[in-house]
Amino acid sequence: MSYYALERLVEQVRSLPGGDADLGLPRAAIGPAPSVPQLVEPGVLRARMGAWLTALSARLETALPEALARATEAWDQADTVAILDGELRDEAIALRRAAQGLEAAEEAELRTAGLEASFGIDATVGLVSLLERRFAAILRLRLRSATPALTVGGRPFLDVAAALAEAGRRWR
Questions:
Q1: Which of 118, 134, 45 is nearest to 83 (CA)?
Q2: How far apart are CA 99 and CA 104, in angstroms?
Q3: How far apart are CA 158 and CA 71, in angstroms?
Q4: Is 156 in contact with 65 (CB distance < 8 Å)?
């Protein structure tokens, strides 16, 4: 996807009706930049992004199998999966603010690093929020598919944890 197409898609999502909380994203993750930008070195931001993605992956490693097990025993409990909470949510907000600080810098290299981090945070938070909010629907679709197994090779069929772990390694 080209930069222009991605930027346009992000703007379309931001223009949807409803408040930030209605979209399922942390308010600071999509809100305006703080009045006093928080400047961090791009290398420090990359390292923090990698650590956050790795921690999010670890959270999913335990939360997703538990949620799948709960869903097979009590279907009405399928939507109780919560991944982005507490420390992980706070770090997403702090990272987004740090990225916004870099986006406001005069140097093109710093702005690019900030924009890259912003897109990464928005995409990750969006993916995790989608998983949290639509978990039961995703499970129903999987169970009605030609391959209804909830685990494949001992891993959840939605192996988001592995994808985030790989992303975390690449951000470092």
A1: 134
A2: 9
A3: 14
A4: yes
Q: How far apart are the first and last CA of the chain?
A: 23
User: Taking residues 127-135, what's their average pLDDT?
Assistant: 88
Which pair of tokens denotes residue 118? Answer: 């912003």
Secondary structure (3-state) at 156: strand
pTM exceeds 0.90, yes or no: no
Show the DSSP H helices in 31-171 as ranges.
42-73, 87-103, 108-133, 135-144, 160-171
DSSP three-state, residue 155:
strand
Taking residues 8-12, what's their average pLDDT? 70
Q: Give the integer Cα–Cα distance in Å for 51 and 45.
A: 10
Confidence band of 54 (pLDDT split at 50, 70, 90) = very high
